[in-house]
Design brief:
about 65% helix, mainly alpha
Length: about 180
């Protein structure tokens, strides 16, 4: 009887460990930790938010290109990246958007810019997805809750990023 309990306990432990490893390291990786930590810190952003954006945008694929033409880990449109390059004093080079450090730098710059404009994480995440002009229109129309956002994609994106953000905030406690 003791042997069966011991074996059952061992099986439960193995299942728990495998589930933990899959969840922590496969589903919610912390790739590019040095770059995310350093660059997010420079812009006063939480690494958990940057990880959540990267997870939602490209699932950690530096060479990702969307149907809309957004590029890299943080899925920046070339027009936005060109503006950011000018703001930070860089010469714009499309190919640099595939460079992990540069893409994270530009993405963090843009998030910081949106925080300066809107101040609220929910609005910032919506603006990152739908653009600041559209978000300004929603604010002017009194749309303050995600259920009223008229872009289903943005409502879903906000929900996803907030869920990922909470997971990454909890992961940071143990890393």
């Amino acid at each position: 009887m003791k042997r069966k309990i011991y074996i059952s306990f061992l099986v439960v432990c193995v299942i728990f460990f495998v589930t933990f490893v899959v969840f922590e390291f496969v589903l919610f990786p912390t790739k590019f930790k040095k770059q995310v930590t350093e660059i997010s810190s420079e812009y006063g952003l939480e690494p958990a938010l940057v990880y959540a954006i990267i997870k939602a945008e490209s699932s950690f694929k530096p060479d990702a290109v969307s149907q809309a033409g957004a590029v890299g880990l943080m899925q920046l449109l070339p027009s936005t990246a060109k503006w950011i390059a000018e703001e930070v004093g860089d010469e714009f080079d499309y190919n640099q958007l595939f460079v992990v450090e540069k893409n994270i730098e530009y993405g963090c710059f843009y998030l910081d810019y949106l925080f300066d404009k809107f101040g609220d994480i929910n609005i910032v995440v919506c603006a990152y997805n739908a653009g600041e002009t559209k978000v300004r229109d929603w604010i002017l129309d009194g749309v303050l809750f995600k259920e009223k956002i008229d872009y289903e994609e943005t409502r879903e994106y906000l929900r996803k990023v907030k869920r990922f953000y909470e997971i990454y905030k909890n992961k940071e406690k143990y890393l």
